[in-house]
Amino acid sequence: MAFGTQDEPDEVMNEINMTPLVDVMLVLLIIFIITVPVMKHAVNIDLPQATSEPETAKPQNIRLSVASDGAYFWNERKITDAELEPMLKAEATKDPQPELHILGDKAVRYERVAQALSAAREAGVGKIGFITDPEAK
Fold first, then answer.
1. Which of 87, 98, 99, 132 could cross-link to 127 by cystine, CB 3.0-4.6 Å?
2. Are 68 and 28 contacting, i.e. CB atoms less than 8 angstroms apart?
């Protein structure tokens, strides 16, 4: 008995056996053929109806400026302290409510800005913002 001699020599297989690959592909094809009609059955849902009405216009912002001498300016028009609160109340009742942008001069006393802020709060203004100068150092 010789270890090196055999009737059939071992040969390296240099071709891919395609039979298992074809079998797997056929099984997958059958699975997809069966499951696709099942997936097409939809659930009936009552969807909400959409309207194509235009969106309401956004109200114009109010610019309340406080000058260095403490004077109030309503959109570039000078107003007195007595006029401020009724004007703020009138704007607070509007629907939708406009935004109040407060611009305070750098040299004005904070008390004047705080008075305007307090008047806006008492009038019921809900949207208040402060405008600053990004270039100021």
1. 99
2. no
Distance CA(10)–CA(3), nearest Å, equals 13
Give the end-to-end CA distance of the chain in Å, rounded to a whole number. 101
What topology does CATH give the domain 62-131? Answer: Nucleotidyltransferase; domain 5 (3.30.420)
CB 48 within 8 A of CB 87: no
- Report, in angstroms and rounded to the nearest whole number, the Rg of the chain calculated over CA atoms: 40
Model confidence at 37, pLDDT cuts 50, 70, 90, reads confident
Q: Three-state DSSP class for 54?
A: coil
Task: Give the global pTM.
Answer: 0.55
Q: Distance between CA atoms of 110 and 117, rounded to whole angstroms? A: 10
The per-residue pLDDT for 28 is: 94
User: What distance in Å separates the CA atoms of residue 69 and residue 118, rounded to the nearest whole number?
Assistant: 19
Q: pLDDT tens, 81-132?
A: 999 999 999 988 888 888 999 888 888 898 999 999 999 999 998 888 888 8
Report domain extents, the chain. Answer: 62-131
